[in-house]
Amino acid sequence: MISEIVLALGLVFVLEGLFLVVAPKRWESVLRVIAAMPVDTRRLIGLVTVAIGVGVVWLARNFLL
To answer: Half-sphere exposure of 18 toward its Cβ, with a 13 Å CA cutoff?
Structure first.
């Protein structure tokens, strides 16, 4: 269980770092757009993102592994 969590965190770091390496200027503009959004919109985006992530993990564990 812990090894899966560490693996998931490692993959998050890889993906986030990859975005910064490939398109740092684009990342800056995305952050500006996010900062300009109302807090409630950011919370909703975060909630939807978490729900999608949980769904992907559930699908992977039940159908791929």
So the answer is: 6
